[in-house]
Amino acid sequence: MLIIVASNGSKGLKDTVSEVFARCPVFTIVKLEKDKIKEVKIEKNTMAKLDYGVGPIVSQKLIDAGANVVIAAQFGPTVQEIFKKANVETFIVPSGTIIEDAIKQYINSRKILEK
Fold it and tell me: pTM for this one?
């Protein structure tokens, strides 16, 4: 499973969730296997400075990258619809949440739903 988190910097799992989605500085890309973190990568958000259309453009880029889940503090309605149509789950946590904690919250929410 590939989880992509809108992030503030390049500290990986110790970084924090950005208050914005499409214009966040970086994305933290987390590969999960059996609810365990197997790989973490940081990718600069090169689309953040575009004048317009950033949400849909970034959303499509993450879909093309194979995202199963995207975590951010907020998503606009257009972005949510794009992800929904692509069967990519969105998960909202407060901005400033430590990324590792956000991942754990997501995993725990899935376990609750599976019961």
Answer: 0.93
